[in-house]
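quick one before i forget lol
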Amino acid sequence: MSVLLATKKIIKEWTDYNNHMNLSYYILVFDMSAEIILSKFKMGEHSAKTTKKSTMVVETHTTYNNEVKEGDEVDVSLSYFNHDSKRLHYKLEMHDKAKNILSATTEVLALYMDLNIRKVADFESEKIEIMNEYIKINKNNFSSEDLKFSSKLKK
């Protein structure tokens, strides 16, 4: 139950002296994958550069379930997504592609920001419509099990 966002091959530069992916690179892989969904919602890098509106992560909860090593391929999927008028709440999962096992998860709470004034802003109605339609289409792929930040949305 999730929506595939990206497949990444773990490169040597992301590994550490324990011969597995360093924890900071899990966040990098998750962040690169999150950019795919943020772009779909018109609040990714392009939006930040052209409209000065983007998101900033304010809280995360990450689990490291099974190690990932150099050369492994991982699938990163969106397993949950919701929003209120100015917050995004989503969870990403990383699965070892060959072993088909859960490697890591990250749950994210992000705020929508007006970068001109560096303050939280409400989503424009167009973006709310895009997100609501995405939720409607994918709701059967999402799971709200074990979420840490559900109470932080103001619906």
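fyi The CA atoms of residues 61 and 116 lie 29 Å apart.
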